[in-house]
Amino acid sequence: MSLDLPATLAGRLKDASQELLQTPKDLGRWLVAAGLAAQVQEPTAEELAQARELREALHRLALARARGENFSARDRSILNRWAAEPPPAPQLGPRGLFWAGADIRGLLVTVARDGAELLGGELAERVRTCEQRDCGLLFVDTSRSGLRRWCSMSGCGNKAKVAEFRRRQRQEAR
Q: Phi and psi of 107, rounded to 5°?
């Protein structure tokens, strides 16, 4: 979940990236798509700005982890400030589970806590950047061998394999 938020700036490595969180409503829809909220909420412009700040801090921290570099003190401070806030609390209601305190801020706290646990926990050494030249997505390599190279086999992995196949075909034709 914490690496899904940085993916909302699509095409980071391309000349023109695409901001997927252009409006507060986009943030509300993303929270539902990410499985953090059951229904779209109405974030404010300030909450959108805060989500973007958290997103960029998470991206830089995960990139540093993937490269084996030290974390920026500023980015750690942003993440830790969010992660220190109280998260939504699971509650049992008449119809089942619901989350008390699951407003926009509480949902961003959940993302920040997930990021802190990921980047400081057992899977931290498995954070990777996609090797496809213009992708730039970050992912957690959960493969048994720990040698996964692409964010997805169906997308970037397939492109890389097709390109390699074509390169070999051209080489053999010579």
A: -70, -40
